[in-house]
């Protein structure tokens, strides 16, 4: 019973198409919806972001037993392309109007940053809905100088929370040969304050996890060797591992345990 993707109009003036998995019928009536929100391609030149996003979608709609478990327990909301005008124009980083959208999460304008405005409204709506729990936010990018896949996360004063959000990238490192935990870093640089990861890290509740997932434009090095393996459109290793690790993340403190089945 592979779900069909369905189009969903976003709030706000943006004509934004997001994919909704699974179909509402897969969830129990009245149950709290646990949501994983994934965005991609806010920077139009970062084509590997789309390949990883495509890999995640392909995996989630597949017959793989882990994909079926994920669909049974979680709602995946995916906005695969946050900067379609920039992509259409062949821009490297900016939208049609010349904005780096990933510096405008704090106060997006419906006129100047419509896709960002629409996605932010949707996320805030979910955040305010007592029947929805936004568990993960992952924004997919590509990196022009670093190798491998890696993540950026947030820094918190609360040591326990800080340690807890390091678990997902550690799991990725164990499950994906191209993912590097040593290149993963946690920061709160002023220059990154307008990014999705930083803004949502401050907005969402204590048990939500927000990351930027970066994948090299070029290649990855397998641990213990010096050989570089070029990334290709078909190589979705990271995507599959990201989904698998979501299953292994374990229970939220105080939350119900989700059995991997
Ligand atoms: Zn980027």
TrEMBL record:
Active-site residues annotated for this sequence: 214
Gene Ontology terms: biological process: proteolysis
InterPro entries to which the protein is assigned, alphabetical: Cytosolic_carboxypeptidase, Peptidase_M14
GO molecular function, one term: metallocarboxypeptidase activity
Peptidase M14 domain ranges (all copies): 1-250
Entries under CDD domains matching the protein: M14_AGBL4_like (cd06908)
Cofactors, names only: Zn(2+)
Pfam families, sorted: Peptidase_M14 (PF00246)
The organism's place on the tree of life at top rank: Eukaryota
Record-stated family: Belongs to the peptidase M14 family.
Record protein name field: Peptidase M14 domain-containing protein
Species per Swiss-Prot/TrEMBL record: Vombatus ursinus
């Amino acid at each position: 019973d592979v779900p069909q993707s369905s189009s969903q109009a976003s709030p706000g003036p943006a004509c934004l198409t997001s994919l909704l998995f699974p179909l509402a019928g897969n969830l129990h009536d009245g149950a709290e919806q646990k949501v994983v929100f994934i965005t991609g391609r806010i920077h139009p030149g970062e084509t590997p972001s789309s390949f990883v996003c495509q890999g995640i979608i392909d995996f989630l709609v597949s017959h793989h037993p882990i994909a079926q478990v994920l669909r049974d327990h979680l709602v995946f909301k995916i906005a695969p392309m946050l900067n379609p005008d920039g992509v259409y124009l062949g821009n490297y980083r900016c939208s049609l109007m010349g904005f780096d959208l990933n510096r405008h999460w704090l106060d997006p304008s419906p006129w100047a940053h419509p896709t960002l405005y629409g996605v932010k409204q949707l996320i805030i709506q979910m955040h305010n809905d007592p029947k929805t729990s936004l568990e993960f936010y992952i924004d997919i990018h590509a990196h022009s100088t670093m190798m491998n896949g890696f993540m950026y996360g947030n820094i918190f004063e609360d040591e326990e929370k800080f340690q807890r959000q390091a678990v997902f990238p550690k799991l990725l490192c164990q499950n994906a040969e191209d993912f590097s935990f040593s290149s993963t870093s946690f920061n709160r640089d002023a220059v990154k304050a307008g990014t999705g990861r930083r803004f949502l890290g401050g907005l969402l509740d204590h048990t939500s996890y927000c990351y930027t997932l970066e994948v090299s434009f070029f290649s990855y090095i397998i641990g213990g060797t010096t050989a570089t393996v070029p990334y290709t459109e078909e190589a979705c290793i990271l995507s599959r591992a990201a989904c698998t690790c979501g299953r292994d993340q374990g229970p939220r403190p105080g939350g119900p345990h989700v059995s991997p089945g």
